[in-house]
Amino acid sequence: MTDDLTTSSIARVARRAAGADESARASRIWWEGAADEYQAEHGGFLGDAAFVWGPEGLDEARVRLLGEPDELRGARVLEVGCGAGQCARWLRGQGAAEVVGIDVSYRQLQHARRIDEQTGTPVAVAQADAQRLPFADAAFDVVCSSYGGFPFVPDTAAAVAESARVLRPGGRLVFSVSHPIRWCFPDDPTEAGLVARDSYFDRRAYVEEDGAGRAVYVEHHHTLGDWVRSIAAAGLVLRDLVEPEWPEDNEQTWDGWSPLRGRIIPGTAVFAADRPEADEPRG
Ligand SMILES: C[S@@+](CC[C@H](N)C(=O)[O-])C[C@H]1O[C@@H](n2cnc3c(N)ncnc32)[C@H](O)[C@@H]1O
Questions:
Q1: Helix and strand element counts for the chain (H, E)
Q2: What was the pLDDT predicted at 4?
Q3: Atom 7 of ligand 1 has which residue's CA nearest to it?
Q4: Is 81 in the pocket of ligand 1 (CB under 6 A)?
Q5: Which residue puts its alpha carbon closest to atom 14 of ligand 1?
Q6: All structural domains of the chain with their residue ranges
Q7: Ligand 1 pocket residue status of 55, Cβ below 6 Å
Q8: What is the pLDDT of residue 8?
Q9: What is the pLDDT of residues 95-122, one digit of tens each?
């Protein structure tokens, strides 16, 4: 990984392949530059110690995809792509014994520190790549991620397998990504964003490059089937696929997510899967 993380203006947008290292480096570059604005714009909606699964505002305190309160109490939890650690802080409030957040962006983690100090609820964080978790096998009871990491990886099977690796038998993985159907539509919150334009089956990444051809933002598209197959291949059992509906009382627009579009097409997919108590032999 290069340490030159300075961003310059976007010279070109491409649809092309991007590998694991290039994608992680682009995420680092992007989020070092975007973290301040992201937290200023969305921090209020996210809450300092709250767990929402995406722009619809689906609240973990209500849906309990990670487990009932008594299951979270005493649990060891890893949050992947934790940003400023809002979800991790909520988990601490639930009585989880250990909560660790990882994120590829140092600036996002500095925001975690800022909120730790403001709230008096610190969360342990480390700078790391979702594709190479710096933890032992079976170290966690729960692995979770709200739009953190998974939308930015080229290989769904490898990323899900890596999270499954650090989950103990009987543990649970829950993560949210942009709903794959969004890939067909322009990222536009108005009516223009309701006209299907691109193929759902085109897996080439969306890549923004600077003048030197360096990727500075990469987002990957994977179909629902890609995610389901990757969950099965990792030896996990898919328990639920939640497609949150846009609530009447949510009037906020978040980039291409808006009440107008949200009432017509899904914006978020949340996958909830369990690692069986005894691992099934993999075919
Ligand atoms: C949309 S933000 C979501 C952050 C947080 N979960 C939230 O809800 O605000 C995406 C986060 O994923 C992180 N990220 C992107 N690629 C990553 C990777 N390969 N490994 C770890 N984190 C990554 C970014 O740095 C960023 O903080």
A1: 8, 10
A2: 72
A3: 83
A4: yes
A5: 149
A6: 23-274
A7: no
A8: 67
A9: 999 999 999 999 999 999 999 999 999 9
Report residue 112 as tokens.
């975690």
Query: Do residues 242 and 272 make contact, with C-beta atoms less than 8 angstroms apart?
Result: yes
Please, which pLDDT band fits residue 6 given cuts at 50, 70 and 90? confident
What average pLDDT does the segment 156-185 reach? Answer: 98
Query: What's the length of the chain?
Result: 283
Mean pLDDT of 68-77: 98
Burial letters 16-32, b for 16+ CB under 10 A, else e: eebebebbbbbbbbbbb
Distance (angstroms) between ligand 1 centre and the Cα of 283 equals: 32
Q: How many Cβ atoms sit within 10 Å of the Cβ of residue 203?
A: 16
Alpha carbon distance 160, 157 (integer Å): 5
CB atoms within 10 A of CB 121: 17
Give pLDDT, residue 281.
61
d(CA 119, CA 110): 14
Please give the CATH number for the structural domain made up of 23-274: 3.40.50.150
206: exposed, middle or buried (Cβ count in 10 Å: 0-12, 13-18, 19+): middle
| E strand segments, the chain | 12-16, 76-80, 98-103, 124-127, 140-146, 167-178, 205-209, 215-219, 237-242, 268-274
3-state SS of the chain: helix, strand, coil percent to 5? 35, 25, 45
Provide the whole-model pTM: 0.96
pLDDT band at 154 (very low <50, low <70, confident <90, very high): very high
Pick the closest to residue 273 from 251, 241, 244 (CA basis): 241
